[in-house]
Amino acid sequence: MRRTTPLALAAAALLLAGCGSQRDSGSDGQAPPRTGSPSAGRSAGGCSGRAELTAADHGRTVCVAEGGEIRLTLDGTRARPWKPVTASGTGLEAVNAGFVLQPGDATAAYRAVTAGTVRLASSRPLCPGPTAPDRASCEGTEEWTVTVRIG
Q: Which of 42, 98, 111, 115 has the fewest beta carbons under 10 Å from its own?
């Protein structure tokens, strides 16, 4: 006779619980756009209580509930540093983002204080500046923007 241990039962329960979870998809079969970090709680209006943004979020629109928080980190380098993040619009209040540990990075943090829309932006050079007089210069910039809706 084979004995079932409590550990085996727990593992089976976890496996079965994971089988029923999947992402909601729209009528076209596509996954809905992200509107915050995957672990963020949702408010009654569908906005998240917290959003963690990176360079990969360029062009997105996120919705954060009043009282929620936005934190962002743009990883740069000494040769291609991000400019400080700017916020234009109403609804966000800057809060302490902590320390920037790596040269070229840009960090920012905001609290959603009132309904509104804010555009967050930064930029950095597309390529490192010339290191020798005979090297051509690169004048292009990489833009980063995210629109934040507070609701």
A: 98
In angstroms, the CA 85 to CA 109 distance is 10
CA angle 105, 39, 148 (to 5 degrees): 55
Q: Distance between alpha carbon 82 and the CA centroid of its chain, in Å?
A: 16
What pLDDT is stored for residue 4 in this prediction? 41
Neighbouring residues of 27: CB distance < 8 A, sequence distance ≥ 6: none
Q: What are residue 147's DSSP bridge partners? A: 61, 119
With b meaning 16 or more CB within 10 Å and e meaning fewer, what string describes 72-85?
bbbebeeebbbeeb
Exposed/middle/buried for residue 68 (C-beta within 10 Å: 0-12, 13-18, 19+): buried
Stretches in the chain below the pLDDT threshold 50 = 1-40, 44
Tokens at 126, concatenated: 């597309």
pLDDT at position 34 is 42
Task: Check: CB of residue 57 under 8 Å from CB of residue 143.
Answer: no
DSSP state letters, 21-41: ------TTSPPPPP-S-TT--
